[in-house]
Amino acid sequence: MKKFLALMLALVMVFALAACGEPETEETAPATEPAGEETPAGEETAPAEGDSDLAYVKEKGTLVVGITNFEPMDYQDENGEWIGFDADLAKAFAEYLGVEVQFQEIEWESKIMELDGKTIDVVWNGMTLTDEVLAAMECSNAYCNNAQVVILPADVAEQYLDTASMAELNFAVESGSAGEDMAIENGFTYTPVVDQATAVLEVSSGTCDAAIIDSLMAAAMVGEGTSYADLTYTIGLNREEYGVGFRKGSDLAAELNAFFAAAYADGTMQEIADTYGVTAALIPQE
């Protein structure tokens, strides 16, 4: 009898424990914490930074233009304001975008690094569209013709009518420029300097025999009626075209091409070119 009672008691305990161990229903199960916050309905996430240069420039409200002192393209007036054919076009383009323009002098050989580091947004400084430039930047359509020419003292210019006669001269050239490329291509001895204006100064002061600079700059800087009336420019070493450079893949290049087409069609580009004496070098824009 005692064994029977003990067995019954054991069975009761088993059924009681089984009832306590049943899984909780949905109504009784405790709520779990969410894995993470969800984006509210209808709210968009921000686009990835750097997707659009145009959006980037408009958001910060400034177009930072990398330049050097290069008359008649970029130079300062008596009040320290940057003017010139390129400078005035850059101001008009910034207005077209609805932003402020900011000019920043750069070392020419560092222009690509400045662009990629976003210290500037554009290189707009009578820049020759070389293979290196086209590979490293997103460039606008060509807008000006140019050439590299030789600067010499006017009283000896007739002695140097071709590259062979110039073989013994020491040239001043802007470091990293198309002028330096021409010096290398022709096997000239040369001294690299910070910009083209300094190259002209080197010839005027007698520290170099000659310089190689852009023809548009030569027309504005040397000869009768200029600060370097005792200098002249002689032979052209090549033919080239100017373009404007942005970061590789930048959508600002297409935007500038659209601006160029509109500014050429309404006469704005020609009017600015007339102001700085570069009308003959303009390339029609479509």
Outline:
Residues 62-280 form the Solute-binding protein family 3/N-terminal domain. Helix content is 35%, strand content 22%. With 286 residues, it is α/β, with parallel strands linked by helices.
Proportion of strand residues: 15-25%
Number of domains: 2
The low-confidence parts are 1-49
State Rg: 35 Å
Amount of helix: 25-40%
Shape: globular
- Which secondary-structure class do the elements indicate? alpha/beta
H and E string? HHEEEHEHEHEEEEHEHEHEEHH
CATH architectural category of the largest domain: 3-Layer(aba) Sandwich
Might you state the CATH topology name of the largest domain? D-Maltodextrin-Binding Protein, domain 2
**What is the distance, rounded to the nearest whole angstrom, between the alpha carbons of the first and last residues?**
113 Å
Biggest sheet record = 6 strands, mixed
CATH superfamily of the largest domain: Periplasmic binding protein-like II
Average pLDDT: 87
Number of helices: 10
Biased composition (Low complexity): 24-49
Signal peptide: 1-18
Organism: Candidatus Scatomorpha merdipullorum
Region (Disordered): 24-52
